[in-house]
Amino acid sequence: ADPVSVPRLGCGSMGGTLALPRGKGPHPVGCTDVMVGHTRQGLFLRLFYPCLARAGATEPLWIPRPEYCAGLAEFTLRRRWCSALLSIALGSCRVPVSWNGPLKPHSGGYPLIIFSHGLGAFRTLYSSVCTELASWGFVVAALEHRDHSAATTYFCTAEAGREEWIPFQWVPKGQKEFYFRNKQVHQRAEECVRVLRLFKDITSGKSVPNIFHQDLDLSVLKDNIDLTKVAVMGHSFGGVTAVLALVKEPRFRCAVALDAWMFPLENLLYPEVPKPVLFINTEKFQTPESVAKMKRLSSRNGQTKIITILGTVHESQTDFAFLSWKLISRVFGTRGTLDPNKGLTITSQASLAFLQRHLNLEEQFDQWDDLLEGVGDSVVPEAPFCRSSL
Question: Is 314 part of the annotated catalytic residue set?
Answer without folding.
Answer: yes
